Write the structure tokens for this entry.
Amino acid sequence: MSRHIPFERLHNFRDLGGYTTPDGHTVRWGRLYRSDSLGKLAADSADWERFLALGIGTVVDLRYPWEIDGKGRVPDHPSFAYHNLSIEHRPYDQAGLGPDVAAGPFLAEKYVEVAHDGAEEIRQVLDVIAYGGDEPLVFHCASGKDRTGLVAALVLALLGVPETQIVDDFARTEHATARLVADWSAERAGRKPAWPDHGRAPADVMRRFLDALTRQYGSVHDYARKALGVDDELIEALHHRLLQPPLDSVELTYRRADASDLAELVRLRDDAARWQLAHGIDQWKPGQLGEDHFRRRLDEGEVWIASLGPDGPTAGAWELWWDDPAAWGPQPPDAGYVHRLMTDRRTAPPGTGRHLLAEAERRIAARGRTWCRLDCLADNPRLRAYYEAAGYTVAGELAGKDGGLGAPYAVTLLEKRL
């Protein structure tokens, strides 16, 4: 899954999901984001619609109040709460540093300074992340590098993510450096920063910072406990909110959907559509399919729901058809057709989609049919690669499939012998 979420004006918006712990847990996708300044978002823009599609419930702005006064803040919206928690207490002009200043020692020292000066505000940020509700949260500063990088490192460390992955996450800002520096220059009539490392995030910075906390306190966890007052309850809340257990420790159960599941199926589909839009995938649209669609599928075929255990939350769903003439034309009864394979990214462990697909294949084979067939948009190479990695091969292309959505669209046809 792509970690970087593309925006026109935001250059460093990233999902903190997918990092793993030594005991096999994974940071949940779509729950915690880091970003450069959301003050660059303009209401009624494509960026704004993409941001809202993420379902953000909380925004934490780490900047000084005077930065917000000068540069603006995220537009108000009833869908999320806004917190300004400025964790830095001693402003400095990073762009104006001389070329002889080494980024690693200088920035690491600044981060240690912030970790001490801003202990009260950092603890408040952790409280908001741990106890701020079930909706996704995003925290940001100006470039999404220094203050944001410090908070991201602390959260990942408290989740048990190894230092190598924490350092890697920090250094990913390097992919945004050129655009961040271009913005800085554009605001100053083309002037270039005096400091060659302005906007950069060398891995050495984060290594030095984590080493400094470890030398002084014994570990990053000990810093959090001694300097921030973090207790077991907060750490447990962070784990509960942000960590997903390994799939092999979770029992996926399957049942055939009925009319009582119509609202849940619509929610799954709309959530998946919002996720696609937020990630720049123009495929599904929220509100495109309602209960009437799924009611027809219940009558004409099968719809299956997967849950985390017999009484657990929904993990995903899919439609199972026994013919599909709109895409495949007349065919002998030798195949099953999978449509709308959906996972709930709030609950489903990584790899759930592949398990749902395998369960659909098993049910098709149990019916005595030898092929599982499906299709995906022809201009969605990531999804095609996903199915090919699951053993599917391309059987053809259909330039104008009529899927009942108002306009024909091109699809790639894929199949797998069972």
Summary: The chain has a mean pLDDT of 93. The first strand starts at residue 14 and ends at 15.
